[in-house]
Structure formats: C-alpha cells, structure tokens
Amino acid sequence: MIDRITDQLIAADVPVCVYNYVTQLSDGLQCAPTPLAFHAGGKLVVHKPIDAPGQAMINYLTKTFRIADVIQLGETPGRNTGNLAAVFDDGSKRMYACREGEGVAPEVQAWAEAVGYQPVPLAVTEEDGRASTDMASVLFLGTGFALVCLDALRSEQDQDTLLDDLVAANRKVIAISYAQRKRFITGIMEVATHYGEPVVVLSETFHNSLLPGQADALSSFATLLPVSWDEAGPWGAGISPAAFFTAVSLEKIVS
After folding, report:
1. Per-residue model confidence as pLDDT tens digits over 151-170
2. Which pTM value belongs to this model?
3. Most CB atoms closer than 10 Å: which of 7, 9, 138, 235?
C-alpha cells in the first residue's frame, strides 16, 4: 500500500525521498514513525520522545535537507499531543489551534513559541456538539486556497477571525461539510512536481465526495492526486497510510 502510493507520487513527477523506518509494537505489528513537523526557517519539530529508530531517521533527514534546528517537545502525562493538530500559515506566522480555556493547550503554546508563530485559538465543535482537539480536520491551507469546515466553527467571532485572515492572505475559501470532513480527516497535503507545479494529495473518498463546484475550485489551484489514504494497514487502530508521508518544503542538500 505504501509502495503503491509512493509509485503514484513518482508517476505524478513529485520528487520523493524514501526512508525505511521500521519499529515494532508489542504485538509484532509495525507502527507509524515518530511524528515530525517541518517549519519555515529549516526547523524540524519532534512531538514525542525520540527512540533509536526515530533518531536514525532524524539523522538521515539532517543529512538530506537543510535543517537549521531540531526541536523536541515534551509530553504531558495523560495527554495525546498527536491529537492537538494545528495548522500553520508560514506567510503570516500564525498557528491555528483548538481553543482550550482562554487560549490553546500548553503543548500547542510551547510548539508555537518554539517555531516563532502566533497561536490563534478557535473553538472547534464536532457534529454532536462535543469539543474537538483536531484543528487539522477542519482547516487546510494550500497555495492560494483554504479548505474549511465552517460548520465546525460555531462561534461567529471565530469564523470572522479565520475568514478575515484568509481574505488578508488572498486565499479562496472552499467550504466543506461535516460529512466531507469525515473523509477529509484521513489526510491531505500539498506537494510540488520537479517543475514547481502544485499537487494536492488527498484521499480517494474525500475526492469522490467533492461537489463539482468544489472540485473545479480546488483543481484551479493544483493538480488533484487521489490516493488510498483510507485503507486499513498493519499499524494499529486509527493509523492510516497518510501517517507515513510528510510534505517537506526544505531545501535538499545536493551531494
């Protein structure tokens, strides 16, 4: 499955670096790699304690890409930092994250401070009324556009804050529904071909859920590449193939 998606990216003329990361869970199944995030200025953020396979991967990345700083964020007992998914706007240095109390979660605040972004707390609500901790499931920022589940932002003030920012950044807003969000959540990323042409990689089910107007608007900014993000794999519950792919915008070191 991972190989098939990799082949699809290569066939679309997207440059791909493959790293063979293998670590085992107690039941013998492979698990997803150490969560990483790349940021402007060559900063690499690691969200969990680094095990031996994770350190080997980081060593590979620092030899392959121009990384200025590796930042390891600690974990709070009883908290799943991986679920506190935030969305970054490199142009405005703003970090959109789910509101917790009057601000954002301590882990998210530490993340923002580590990379020099201003956190923007927004109250995200599930369809059944529960609070959500996953901003990345309701907002995706691409080149010139933004996918947003506005229904999940029930505060008019939060909607206005976000929409004002998107307009200021000259991004076209493409609204998606709660039902589409459930398909969108499995993973979406923007990459580029060898020639710098943007490609949006998204799940096949989310792609199939797009209305004609949504698909036309999205494809006016980038080529759409549907892949099998949704298929179950041997990595444990809740881990999709998307966990094994990361868009890297850093300069590659030419040997």
Report:
1. 999 999 999 999 999 999 99
2. 0.86
3. 138
